[in-house]
Amino acid sequence: MPDTKKYNRILDALQNLLEDSSIQNISVSDIAKKAEMGKGSIYYYFPSKEAILDALIERNYEEPLQTAKNLAALTEVSPFTRMAMIFQACRSSSAAFLSHNRDNSDTIANAQNSALLQQKYMNHLISELKPALTEIIKQGIASGEIHFDYPAALAEIVLIVLAVKLNSTFLSSTTENSENTIQGLVSLLEKGTDVPQGTLNYLV
């Protein structure tokens, strides 16, 4: 049975190495040395360096994402309220990402790492939240509160816009510009799902 402490030691080792080296220059041997364990032990937990990096992304952002995914089961709560909570989870997750990268972006290596982590973060955020948001939209359609024929597509569009606009390391943007874009997204959601104007203002 895998040892949770060793698993986290491996992730901690990679996270520490990323503060001074680009991911391209870090080997599994480097991670093993930093974690103070044999290289074979690393491969017991992870098939590759890429898998370790993916697991590190998941660990760093899992708490707000898990909260969002749990919302799909709360059918007694309005789908719009749950969508608002997912939007907030996106904000929290993005804030955690930005905070870490602001502290570790003063070298070329860290700038390279930031770009790669940004790509992986966005992919993780969208792929993890899309099923939950799709299910919530489907529930809203079934209850007659939302009118839209493509719930999965709508969920993906919303998450892509949020992931990009809430992360200024990917697309340079002021807070005001980001808020305006999200306000525009809310307006499109209201028109596209046939709900009264202003219904989703609290999502912003």
Main sheet, how many strands, which sense, barrel? none
Cα Rg: 19 Å
With helices defined by DSSP (H or I, 4 residues minimum), what is the helix count? 8
Overall shape: it is elongated
Distance between the termini: 45 Å
**Helical content band:** over 70%
Question: Structural class from helices and strands?
Answer: mainly alpha
Averaged pLDDT, please? Answer: 79
Low-confidence stretches are: none
Give the tally of β-strands.
0
Tell me what portion of residues adopts beta-strand conformation: under 5%
- Tell me the series of helices and strands, N- to C-terminal: HHHHHHHH
Describe the protein.
- This protein is mainly alpha-helical.
- The protein has eight helices and no strands.
- The chain has helices at 4-17, 28-35, 39-45, 49-70, 79-103, 108-143, 151-165, 175-192.
- It is elongated and about 60 Å long.
- The mean pLDDT is 79.
Give a concise summary.
The chain has 204 residues and is mainly α. It is built from 8 helices and no strands.
Considering the chains and any ligands shown, give keywords for the structure:
mainly alpha, 8 helices, elongated, 204 residues
List strands and helices in order, with pairings.
Layout lengths: L3 H14 L10 H8 L3 H7 L3 H22 L8 H25 L4 H36 L7 H15 L9 H18 L12
